[in-house]
What does this fold into?
Amino acid sequence: MLAGAVVALAVLAAVAPGLLATQQPDAIDPVNALAGPGDGHWLGTDQLGRDVLSRIVHGARTSLLIGFGATAFAVVVGSLLGVFAAAAGRAVDQILMRATDILLAFPGLMLSLVVVAVLGPGTGNATLAIGASLLPGFVRLARGQALAIRDSDYVRAAVVIGRGRGSVFVRHLLPNALPPLLVLATVNIGSAVIAGSTLSFLGLGPQPPSPEWGAMLAEGRDHLDTSWAAAVFPGLAITVTVVAVTVVGRALQRRIDGRDGHGR
It folds into this structure.
C-alpha cells in the first residue's frame, strides 16, 4: 500500500505538477544559488538558484513518460512480433527468434546507447532506445505464451470450424497472451525509469533546461562540496520511485500467480 501511494504521488506530480510544486521549475535566482533546504526552498536550490523541489515535481513527467512510454512500446511491438512468430510458421519464427537472440546478446544499456547515438539525444529518441532494449524479453515471452495457447482445445476448435489464421491471431492468441506481458511490463517500468535517468545523466536524454531527474543528478554532482541537496534529492526521487514501482509490480505478479503476500 505504501508503494502504491508513492506511485500515485509520482503520477500526480507528472499529471498535475502545479498541485505540488511551489515555484516555476526554470525560475533563476542567482542570489540564492546552491542554498540548502529552508524557508522558501524546502529542498534547496541548484547552481542557478532554481527550486529543487519544483524541478523534481516537474521532472516526474519526463522521467515517467520515458519509463512508461518505453515499456508501452516494448509491450505493443513485442506482443505483436512474439505472437506473430508463433502463428506464422517455422520459417518466420526462426527468423524473428534469431533476430531477438542478436538483440539479447547486447546489454540493455549498450543497445540503448547505440540507438541514441544513431538517432540523436532527446526525450522521444531516449524512449525509443530504451523500448528497443526491453523488446527482446517481451517478444520471447509473447511467443512462449502463444505457443502454449496455440495447442489449446479452443484454438484447435476454432481452426476446425474454419477460422482463418488472422482471426485466430486476433481473437485467441493475442488477447490470451497479454496478461503475463502486462505483469512483466509493470516490473520493467522501474528498469525503464532507471535507464532513462542514466541516458539523461550522460547527456543523451531530454536536453536542458527541461527538468529530468537524471540530468538534475548530473548537474548537482559537480557541487556536492558546496550543496548536497541539488544531487541527493533527485537521486532519492529516482530510487524511491523505482523501488515503489517494482514493489507494486511484484505484488501484481504474485496476485496473478495466485499467491498471497507471504509467498504461498
In short: The two ends are 19 Å apart (CA to CA). Confidence is low (pLDDT under 50) at residues 259-264.
